[in-house]
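Data deposition worksheet. Section B asks for the primary sequence of the deposited chain exactly as it was used as input, without tags or linkers unless they were present during the calculation. Section C holds the resulting structure in token form. Section D is free text for depositor observations; keep each observation to a single sentence. Incomplete worksheets are returned to the depositor.
Section A, Depositor: J.P.
Section B:
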Amino acid sequence: MAQKMPESALKATNIDSRLSYLKRQFYALHEIKEKGSGFGWDDKQKMVTGDRAVFDEWVKDAKGLFRKPFTFYDSFEEIYAKDRATGVSATN
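Section C:
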């Protein structure tokens, strides 16, 4: 990357770190959307709605996303949602 874009300060580790962070947030939001009781999902704005106190107790990896858009949600769902275990034999 340094050869192609020498003015960029990005390194592969920065990209990997950012992707890992976004994946953790996506998985937390996905779990809330699928299993969370007392939450809503605004599909137009791609954000969780509901009571803030309940939200803060429910999640750790997505605390900063209460009523804030996660614009990559649909793309991440298409790529990563199938990676999540489902069914009777799935464990947390």
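Section D:
The CA atoms of residues 57 and 63 lie 9 Å apart.
Residues 20-83 form one domain.
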